[in-house]
Write a structure and sequence with these properties.
Chains A, B: It comes from Streptomyces lateritius. In chain A, helix 1 packs across helix 3. The first copy, chain A, has 3 domains: 71 residues, Winged helix-like DNA-binding domain superfamily/Winged helix DNA-binding domain (Arc Repressor Mutant, subunit A), CATH 1.10.10; 143 residues, Nucleotidyltransferase, domain 5 (2-Layer Sandwich); 163 residues, Nucleotidyltransferase, domain 5. Chain A is α/β, with parallel strands linked by helices.
Chain lengths: 420, 420
C-alpha cells in the first residue's frame, strides 16, 4: 500500500518519447519477449510485440552483440514460410545472485537471463546463535563461493538480492523476530562483507545489494517459475521456523504502506494463546511454524530431539506412516492454518493459496485439514477442496531463486544498463 | 484480485490515438480537473493539465454548452494577470443516484456533478421481515420519490448504483447473510420495480442499474469526500447489523478474484465462538456488530428493548456517561475489533483504518480499546495510538453517497456519453 502522489484526474497527454528512449524501451520489449517464450524466432517476436520484422531484426542484432541473446539452430516447426533462426536468452553473461538468510540455513543461487537456477549452495546454519553482522558475514562467504563458481561458467551477476525472514524496508531489517534482529542495516553490512571476499571482475562496478522479505521473493518465484498457470492473484505462505506470507494481486506484490504487508504468521488464531517472539499472543506461527509442529509431534523436546530439515522429514515420514502423534500434530497445525487463512481469504478473495517452505512435504495430512477449515469458514461458500485453490509451492520456486530473478527482471527492464 | 490477462513483457508502443478520442479524453480531463478543484479558472486548468490555454478554452466551451460546467463571477485572487472567470461543475443536469439497502434502513441520495449530496431520504425499514423482491420494491419506492425531488431541481441521474450488505457480483447478490438473501438478481429486480414507478424524462433512456457491496462504496465515499488527507491506502469497516469491510490500495478498491474481498466481518476472532449467520463460528460480527453490542449492553434483550439507531444512540449516551455495562460492552467489542484488525493490518499494512457505520458515535470508548489491541499485536511495532492511524469515518461519507458518486465518476470519465 505504498502511497503514490495523488494524481487526481489530471493526466496530460504524454510527451512524445525521444528516439533513444523508444529504442531502449523496445530492446527491453524484445528481450523480455524472448525470455518469456524460452525459444522463439524474430518473426514470432515481431508478431507478438507489434513491431515490424525489420525493426525486430535490428533490435535482435544489438542484443546479440551485447551477449544478451544467442542464436541456436533453425526451426521448421509450425511457422509458415522459410525457417527462422531460434533465439534464446543468453546462458552466460548477465545473471542475478539471490541470497536467502533464514533462521536455520543460508541458500545462495545464481540465476541466468533465462531464469534458470545455475549455481546453488545451501548450508544449514543456526543463525539464532550469532549476531546479525556475523550471520551476514557467513552468508557473504557462501555468496563469494557461489560467485566464484558462476564466474567459472561466465555468469556475472548484475546485483545481489537478499531474502530475509523479517520486516524489510529500504535496506534495513526493521525487525526479524525469529533471528532476533532489530534495525539491522543488512544491505550495508552484507555489501561490506562481500566486498572483502569477492574482488569482482577488473573494472566492473561493485555489486549493488538490496534486501527484501523472503516470503515476498518466494511468492515472486512461484509466480514466475511455479505451476500456477493462469493464476495471478494469490496468497503465499512459507512455513519455516516462522510463517512468512506474501500477497500477489494481478501479478504484483502488495507491499503495504511501509513495505510490511503479508505478515500472516502473526495473525492471532487465539487471542489468549502462547506468547510469540513478536510480543503478541497466539500468533499463527505458534501453532503452525516448524518449531511448534516438531514440538507437538514430540520431535523437538529436549535431548535426542531431531531438529531442522531432518526433523521435518522425520515428521513427514511418521505422518505418512499414520503414526498418531505425528498425524495429530500436522492436522492440528492444518486446522490453525486454515482458521488464519480463512480470515485472509475472506479479506482478500485470492484465486489461490500457495503453501511453501516445509508445508509441501506435509501436504497429504496438512492439505485436507487446511482445506476443510477454509471450506467451513470462507463466507462466499466458494472454497471447496475440489476447486483445487490450495496448492503446494513448486520445489523449483524458492526465495533464493525469486531474489535472484528480481535482479534478472531489472536487467530485462533495461538491458543497456547492464555492465556486469 | 480480479485477474487480468497475462501481459508479460510484451507492450507494443501504443498506436496513436485518433483526434476524436484525444478530444474525448481531454474533455474528461478538463471536467475532472474542475470537479476536483471545486472552483477554478481556465488558466489554472491549463497549468494543471499541461494543455495550452487556447485548447482548454475550447474544451471548456464545449463543456459549458453541454451544461456540464458553469461560469460563476470573476476571480482576482492570487493569479497574475487579468482576472479569470470562475468555473465550477454544474449543479444541475448530470447526477448520480445512490441507493443503500441495509438490514434496518434504506437510504437514497442524489449527488450532483460537483459531488454534493443534493437530495436525501433515509427510511428505517426492517428488511429482514420481507423477501428480497419486496425489499427491492420498497427501496425503489423511496428512489422514485427522490428522483421526483431531484427532477424538480433539474438534476437527472445518469444511473443508479445500489449498495448492498453482501457479496455482490455482476448484478447479483451472491449472499447477504444478514438480509437472508441468496442469489438475488438485485439489478434486474430493482430496475423492474423502479421502471413501474418512475417514468423518466420523455425520450431519455432507461436508468442503468448496477450493484456493489455497501462497504466498498462507503470506502470510496470516505476516499473522495472524507477527511483522509493524503491517505490513499486504508481499511474501511462499517459497523451495522453486520460488519462490512473494504480495502483501498493507492486509491483503488481491492476487489478480489470474485469481487468478494474485504469481508472482515467474518474473520474468526474465536474459532469456537458462537455460530454466525454465514455458517462459520466466532466471526467478528458476533462480537462487534450492532446486535451483539446492544445485546451485551442489555439494550436488545426482549421486551422493552431499544433497537436500531435509537438503541445505538442510547448505548453511546450510556457509555459516555460511564455506565458500567455500556462501557464494558463497547470496550469488549473494541478489543475484539482490535484483535481482528491486527490480523488485517499485519496482512495489508495500510496507512489507516477507518471505522464507519455505528462506530464513530462510540469512538470515545471504542477507539482506545481498538487502538490498544492494535498497538499490542501489529508486528511492525508501528501502530501507536498517538500515530492517529485509527479514524472515525466522516459523517458526510456514507454508502449511499459513495454509490451515487460512482455514477458521477462515470460521467466525469466520459462526459460525451451522458444523455440524461
Amino acid at each position: 500500500m505504498k502511497t503514490t502522489p495523488r494524481t487526481g484526474g489530471a493526466h496530460p497527454v504524454e510527451p512524445k518519447a525521444d528516439k533513444a528512449s523508444v529504442r531502449r524501451h523496445n530492446l527491453s520489449l524484445v528481450l523480455r519477449t524472448v525470455h518469456e517464450a524460452g525459444e522463439t524466432t524474430r518473426a514470432s517476436v515481431a508478431a507478438r510485440v507489434g513491431l515490424t520484422r525489420a525493426a525486430v531484426s535490428s533490435l535482435v542484432e544489438q542484443l546479440l552483440e551485447r551477449g544478451l541473446l544467442v542464436e541456436s539452430g533453425k526451426t521448421f516447426s509450425g511457422q509458415a514460410g522459410r525457417p527462422g533462426t531460434v533465439l534464446k536468452a543468453a546462458d552466460t553473461g548477465p545473471a542475478g545472485l539471490g541470497v536467502e538468510i533464514n533462521v536455520d540455513y543460508v541458500s545462495v543461487c545464481v540465476v541466468d537471463l533465462a531464469g534458470t537456477d545455475r549455481v546453488r549452495v545451501t548450508e544449514p546454519l543456526d543463525n539464532r546463535t550469532a549476531g546479525a553482522a556475523e550471520v551476514l558475514e557467513r552468508a557473504a562467504r557462501v555468496a563469494a563461493r557461489v560467485l566464484g563458481s558462476a564466474a567459472a561458467r561466465d555468469l556475472h551477476p548484475a546485483g545481489v538480492r537478499l531474502a530475509l525472514p523479517g520486516l524489510v524496508s529500504a535496506g534495513t531489517v526493521h525487525q526479524a523476530p525469529n533471528l532476533g534482529w532489530n534495525r539491522v542495516e543488512a544491505d550495508r553490512l552484507f555489501a561490506a562483507a562481500l566486498g572483502g571476499l569477492w574482488p569482482g571482475r577488473p573494472g566492473a562496478p561493485e555489486l549493488p545489494v538490496a534486501s527484501d522479505n523472503e516470503a515476498n521473493v518466494a511468492a515472486l518465484a512461484e509466480l514466475w517459475f511455479g505451476g500456477l498457470g493462469e493464476v495471478r492473484s494469490f496468497l503465499h505462505l512459507t512455513g519455516e521456523i516462522g510463517v512468512g506470507g506474501a500477497i500477489v494481486v494481478n501479478g504484483q506484490l502488495l507491499r503495504g504502506a511501509h513495505g510490511f504487508a503479508g505478515e500472516i504468521g502473526h495473525l492471532a488464531v487465539d487471542g489468549n494463546g502462547p506468547l510469540c517472539r513478536c510480543g503478541s499472543h497466539g500468533c499463527l506461527e505458534q501453532y503452525a511454524g516448524q518449531s511448534a509442529l516438531l514440538r507437538a509431534a514430540g520431535l523437538e523436546d529436549g535431548a535426542g530431539a531431531t531438529a531442522g530439515a531432518a526433523g521435518v522429514e522425520e515428521l513427514a515420514r511418521r505422518a505418512d506412516a499414520g503414526e498418531a502423534r505425528a498425524v495429530a500434530a500436522v492436522e492440528e497445525a492444518g486446522r490453525r492454518l486454515g482458521l488464519a487463512l480463512s480470515g485472509a481469504v475472506n479479506l482478500l478473495d485470492p484465486e489461490a493459496v500457495v503453501l511453501g517452505g516445509i508445508y509441501p512435504r506435509l501436504m497429504p495430512r496438512l492439505g485436507p485439514a487446511v482445506d476443510g477449515e477454509l471450506a467451513r469458514r470462507v463466507v462466499s461458500g466458494l472454497w471447496t477442496p475440489a476447486a483445487g485453490r490450495l496448492r503446494p509451492a513448486s520445489a523449483s520456486a524458492d526465495a533464493a531463486r525469486g531474489a535472484a530473478a528480481v535482479v534478472i527482471r531489472e536487467v530485462l527492464a533495461d538491458p543497456l544498463a547492464y555492465t556486469g
